[in-house]
Amino acid sequence: MAPLKRCTYLQLGSFLLIIIALFFVIRYIPFTNMIARNRLPKPFWEPLEADLAQTRQVRRIQNLLHAKERSVKQELMNYPWPSGMNSSWVIPKYGGNPIRAMILTTWRSGSTFLGDVLKSHPATYYHYEPLIHFGIHQIRSGPKAHRAQETLEKLLKCNYSNLDAYFTYAQKHHETFAHNERVWNSCQRGKEQSCWNPQFWGSMCKLFPFQVIKTVRVRANLIERFLEQSKSLNLRILLLVRDPRGTMQSRTHRVWCPGNPDCEDPAMLCSDLVNDYKTAQHLTKRYPDSFRVIRYEDFAANPEVHSKEILKFVGFQSHAKIDEFLKSHTNANIGGVSSTFRDSKTAPYHWKKDLSFDVIQTIQGKCQDALNLWGYRTYANESQLLNLHSVMPFVLK
């Protein structure tokens, strides 16, 4: 019996040594690497890893949404709601219908400044250039027009699904989302994967009671479909117009303009201005409560007064945040050509000094109808340019 016992003890000892060795192997060698590299087939492991990453992202997005919901509520504290109204009426997450505003114009016409005025309003979600992925083109008709209208309508309803081209562009050009700081900062300014998640943006959008959309690529003839829904969308549209001489001067500073006829040809710009005028005549008569025109020069001459008028038109309330923005952005020129820190009273007229009179005459020759319709003076000589104001009284007839 003794030899048998010794054998049993030896077997038991060997077994224990194997168990201890396995423990240290499992303890000190990353188990996940063993599975991924050596033990289990990839079709088993990779879905588990993907599911885990997706679960983490979903949880992260949920945390960001909860934080932003609290932030929006904080911004709305003491907000001067009209009598009988509260935030739940206008926040989509709670079944409300947000107050929406659309700025429609063309490149270098003052829309960045006006858009920044409106987004300085509390709890405002900003759709900046949602058609930016269409390139340096004006969209007037055809298949592009249909796609552009669909994109705008989806975003007005906080629907970011099936916008692959938009997100692909945004990943390479962060300015697409960077102007919407309230959301962009939440996802670490593009560093988090949630920044490129359509569900993240759609859910964020539904937390905001005020929404602003600014576009410089569609012409006025394409927006009537939105005005037809203006009551259900709670939408107001503002057409922003600028003297084409000022627009063309401002475009000369942009590297993306040369080589693109819709941008560098004043004849194309002024043809659009004429067509926009005719469309505006129709839209103003048919939708007087939902559509309005303003010239950039008029707005810049007295931004405080005109901001109050625009806020009232779109359904936003006057607020100290907007007053602070105007005080800090309208009294001095700071930054480059895209900066919105400008002396608002002189900014619209840099073209009078920066363009040669020959260039001014060339633009006037291609833009006579547009200048006349929109109330801009033409100049016969340099003496008139120095002594006569370029902006005349204007009423859309």
From TrEMBL:
GO terms for biological process: N-acetylglucosamine metabolic process; sulfur compound metabolic process. It holds the Pfam family Sulfotransfer_3. One of its GO terms (molecular function) is N-acetylglucosamine 6-O-sulfotransferase activity. It comes from the Eukaryota. Keywords: Membrane, Transmembrane, Transmembrane helix. The chain crosses the membrane at residues 12-31. InterPro entries: Gal/GlcNAc/GalNAc_ST (IPR051135), P-loop_NTPase (IPR027417). This is Uncharacterized protein.
